[in-house]
Amino acid sequence: RKCEQVTSFPSVAMSSSTRLSSSLASTRVVAPSSARLARRAAASTRCVAEAGGTIMREVLDRSQRTKINTVDDRNWYSQPRLCTHVDDEFLAQLTQLYRERIPAGGKVLDMCSSWISHLPPEVEYSEVVGHGLNAEELGKNRRLSRFFVKNLNENPTFAAEDQTYDAVLCCVSVQYLQRPEEVFAEVYRVLKPGGVFIVSFSNRMFYEKAISAWRDGTGFSRAQLVKQYFQCVSGFTKAEVITEVGVEPDDSVFGKLKRFMKRSSSDPFYAVVGYRNYRRIDA
């Protein structure tokens, strides 16, 4: 609260106790006006908004961004690959994760997409926008409302306005991003507050096109790397690593052994999930 002191100078001397009583009696408390409070709240909101989406540090050094095959990505992906790059069990878990985390009726950006998006077939969305490097693949994706072709390693930006999407997806492609900090900051920009970013991957890749920091890592180290991508951009919630979807984990010795055998015989599932500002209570 702001206090405005009104001081008087009497013509006669006063004792110290008299002066104190006079001073307290003449103090007038001025309450902030509603307009002033509104201005302060707006300024505080602007500060938070400006702070969110800032790249606070670089995760990768120059050598970690390099690829074995330096052919331009657009040329390398010029031939359509109408196949899935992970097994059916992986894809079933991914679809279930989408079912659980993407709000029905929302707007979705499928980043680094292909001829299929793995979205739950029974769920309708207001719009699904696809991004990728091969127009023929994207043109065959029936879930897309529209799509665009762009090399994010050359220009890591989207044409979308701020706070456009309820969800952004990146399926088995994060390993090819050479400027991940900028891409994640751009994802933050286009997500609505409470919007979700789901990054999924396995142990498969086009080895010569994956970045050095990814190529010879383990599932654990790669999950930690993607968590760092989230953490380097201010405003994302604490990233969550998911290795099983729709299953109550059995932490007994037998359960752990069973999970190990299962992951050894199929494509291991990893997803790292973060939200802009906060997680929706219905997500």
Topology overview:
Elements: E1 2-5, H1 16-25, E2 27-30, H2 34-51, H3 73-76, H4 88-101, E3 107-111, E4 127-132, H5 135-139, E5 146-149, E6 165-171, H6 180-190, E7 191-201, H7 212-215, H8 219-231, E8 240-242, H9 253-265, E9 270-275
Parallel strand pairs: 3-4, 3-6, 4-5, 6-7
Antiparallel strand pairs: 1-2, 7-9, 8-9
Structural key phrases:
283 residues; globular; two-stranded antiparallel sheet; alpha/beta
Largest sheet: 7 strands, mixed
Overall geometric form:
globular
Number of strands: 9
Annotation field: number of helices: 9
Mean pLDDT: 82
Sheet-strand content, in percent, reads 15-25%
Instruction: Note the gap between the termini.
Output: 39 Å
- Write down the Rg: 27 Å
Uncertain segments of ≥5 residues (pLDDT<50)?
Answer: 1-32, 41-50
Sheet/helix structural class:
alpha/beta
Q: Indicate the percent of residues in helices.
A: 25-40%
Strand order of the largest sheet: 5-4-3-6-7-9-8
Q: What pattern of helices and strands is seen along the backbone?
A: EHEHHHEEHEEHEHHEHE
> What oligomeric assembly is this protein in?
single chain
Notes on the structure:
- By secondary structure, the protein is α/β, with parallel strands linked by helices.
- Strand 4 (127-132), helix 5 and strand 5 form a beta-alpha-beta unit.
- The two termini are 39 Å apart.
- The strands form two sheets. A seven-stranded mixed sheet has the order 5-4-3-6-7-9-8, sandwiched between helices. The chain has a two-stranded antiparallel sheet with strand order 1-2.
- The chain contains nine helices and nine strands.
- Helices cover 33% and strands 18% of the residues.
- The protein has helices at residues 16-25, 34-51, 73-76, 88-101, 135-139, 180-190, 212-215, 219-231, 253-265, and strands at residues 2-5, 27-30, 107-111, 127-132, 146-149, 165-171, 191-201, 240-242, 270-275.
